[in-house]
Structures are given as structure tokens and as C-alpha cells.
Automatic annotation (TrEMBL):
<dbReference type="InterPro" id="IPR012318">
    <property type="entry name" value="HTH_CRP"/>
</dbReference>
<dbReference type="InterPro" id="IPR036388">
    <property type="entry name" value="WH-like_DNA-bd_sf"/>
</dbReference>
<feature type="domain" description="HTH crp-type">
    <location>
        <begin position="1"/>
        <end position="58"/>
    </location>
</feature>
<protein>
    <recommendedName>
        <fullName>HTH crp-type domain-containing protein</fullName>
    </recommendedName>
</protein>
<dbReference type="Pfam" id="PF13545">
    <property type="entry name" value="HTH_Crp_2"/>
</dbReference>
<dbReference type="GO" id="GO:0003677">
    <property type="term" value="F:DNA binding"/>
</dbReference>
<dbReference type="GO" id="GO:0006355">
    <property type="term" value="P:regulation of DNA-templated transcription"/>
</dbReference>
<dbReference type="InterPro" id="IPR036390">
    <property type="entry name" value="WH_DNA-bd_sf"/>
</dbReference>
Length: 68
């Protein structure tokens, strides 16, 4: 959604609703909510109204590559 190297001043807030994230990922709203809640519990993201804030980009990247 953003590239920190290309846009270092970019805030780490993605203006996407949970429904939009679900559509983009092919998940139901319920499964999207569960996945986002798990990431928030791990302190990787913060879920806000209509947005997701990235709290730990490095850890989120490592999480995304587990099992590669």
C-alpha cells in the first residue's frame, strides 16, 4: 500500500475500511476482522475507524514472510 523507501515521510496509516481490506484480500468481513484483531493483539497494527495504522513495519513484514 505504501513504500517507506520511496516515500519516507509517508504516514503509516492506510485509509481502508475492514470491508475494503476484506474485498482486496478475498476474505469475508468476519475473517478480516479476526485477522486484523490478531495483528492488533500482536502490536503490529492499530485498527482505527476507517483506517489501519502500521505500528511495527519490520515485524509486520517478517510476519508476512513466515512460511515462505
Amino acid at each position: 500500500m505504501f513504500n517507506q523507501q520511496l516515500y519516507p515521510a509517508t504516514d503509516r496509516i492506510l485509509g481502508l475500511s475492514q470491508e475494503e481490506i476484506g474485498r482486496l484480500s478475498g476474505l469475508s468481513r468476519q475473517n478480516t476482522n479476526r485477522a486484523l484483531r490478531d495483528l492488533a493483539d500482536a502490536k503490529l497494527i492499530a485498527v482505527e475507524y476507517g483506517a489501519i495504522q502500521i505500528l511495527d513495519l519490520g515485524a509486520l513484514r517478517r510476519f508476512a514472510h513466515v512460511g515462505d
